[in-house]
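Quick one: examine the sequence and fold tokens given here and explain what the tokens say about the fold. Here goes:
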Amino acid sequence: KMKSNNLDVKVPEPGLETEEKGMEEESARESDSSILDVSSDYPREKHISIQRHLADLEKLADLKEDEKKPCPLCPEEKFRACYSHKLHRHLQNLHWKVSVEFEGYRMCICHLSCRPVKPNVAGDQTLSKMGAHYHCIICSATITRRTDMIGHINRHVNKGETESRFITVPAPKSSREVVKESATDVQVLPNSSTPQKTDSYFNPKMKLNRQLIFCALAVLAEERKPIECLDAFGATGIMGLQWAKHLRTSVKVTINDCNENSVTMIQENCHLNKMKVKLNTKQEDGDEAMGDGEENTDTIEVTRMDANVIMHLRSFDFIHLDPFGTSVNYLDSAFRNVRNLGIVSLTSTDISSLYAKAQHIALRHYGCNIVRTEYYKELAARIVIAAVTRAAARCNKGVDVLLAVALEHFVLVVVRVLRGPTPADESAKKIRYLIHCQWCEERIFQKEGNMVEENPYQQLPCDCHGSMPGKTAVVLGPLWSGALFNTGFLRRMLFEAGQYGLDEAQPLLKTLVCEAECTTLKHFTTHSPYDENKQEECGVYIKTPNASAESSLAHGKRKSEEVIRNTPKRQKPESSAEHPAFYYNIHRHSIKGMNMPKLNKFLNYLSEAGYRVSRTHFDPMGVRTNAPLAQFKTVLRKYSTPTYTGGQAEGPVHLPEGILAGEQVQAAPDGKEEDAEFLEDDESGVATDYVVTTDYATHCATE
């Protein structure tokens, strides 16, 4: 039952400002006791403004159709007693709709005199003018604004203070929720998905990233068993638990995290999945086995160290880095002790710098100059690979890029480590600068060599520098200029994804295989990834289920003399097999006033013209092809249709020269003289391209 809402608070005039804070706390406690009519000793009930459902709030008012009832959260001078239908609308619109939700409870707005009011000059208090406020479910604070209340609750959550003062039983475990992913259960905190440096960070949107890394580890586990793998930033331990639960005897999993709360949560999640834990929180050999029985295949080692420290102290076959933001601070230690032919995978989530939104940060972290281009996602992947290659070369190791994926939330790079100065030199030579035309988006890597060219613009296939005033190109980089995918490794990843039922990763892996082979999806073949002709990788023969023991390498040992003798012959890949660098966006180069063809049909048109073509995962409307930009625009112009059929339709597609130009496109790969003749004849086409690029450049400059 409610008591009187008025409080008799006596405030002495001298020392008013010094004792104001203590007076507020005392009056708040008195107001709570007067409203709730309970003692201040625990256990205490929640404030009446904190309810789970609107019906619970209506029960406080004891609504009856034939009687007038006051509002339980408003004083009588603010809201008079009324009938049930009007009081129901009042509770729903004024109190319930503006409430703050937390763990199933609603903290409704309260208009009672729970907060003390500062006295005026005369010394009296005007309690009738008390403002609205919220009562915190975690502490006894009262907040006036809703946005401040949300921020107040978030600060509690970020500090891990989710236990309410109104509940006597500690509830850290009940506040956690169990998330299941790939047959693995993990407990996460309510703030696990917030993008902040919290104790345990679990992002459900990174499920595809975890599946790709699992497929890469499964492929490595087929080559040699057992392998020692490290999850350097465990957080909740979801990734390491999936490795141990599905691969079992093939892997020895180590989950590391430098935060004590995260290590505790990893141990609890291991027990939740019925796995034993081997705890090592020191940098020495101070291991403590948890659980009964001897160490078996279901044992996971959990360490609490800095990621750089554990990678310096121990050697691993597989290392995954997924820090908060950039991973460049951990590359040197990752490549220092990784074993030969091992795999290092890293996930970079600093997409603001990699995607050219914060260019100064990209220069600071990666030492790379970049601008926003139509192929910015592939540019980000090549930036990360260049940083990885330089870090490996400092440790006399080379890299073979197996996989590079850049999506909305992350950039994933997976490389195989090749030990020795010769692979390191060959990998370092693939780091080059890129010349990018800002008018037509044409791009080309600089030629190898240290000689300074008199006119660098001559390397670009376009003639924008001669027809446009001023400087038209910029130099980007240094970037990785080699291949981004290994076809054989991707096919084996696709095979493992099918074996373990990873449905979300299979469509992406099919796209990556087609992109690596630069073919369309209709030409995709599903032959066995473990054929004899696919066993060669990274210049050596790797161990597969169909391979003999003589063609495999011993685990952790150097190559034999026979393998070293035959290595140079195997390390020469076919130049035609490597996919073209970068891609073109069909919308970026569309013609104004024309309807471009469907993307799949356009791919067929380019393929019929004699060019290699495929789609790309970097851009849903991107086309990866070895066709020059001029020929790309020519085919696009030929098969585009006008948006209207009026007599004012423009464009070279209506001219007979356009049809003749399309015939010359098919013979374009045979020689460059015909390309030049076509560009000279089709003057109208050049003028049209000029208008489009000028409008686009003006639009970009305005933005």
Observations:
- The CA atoms of residues 380 and 523 lie 29 Å apart.
- Residues 50-117+130-158 form one domain.
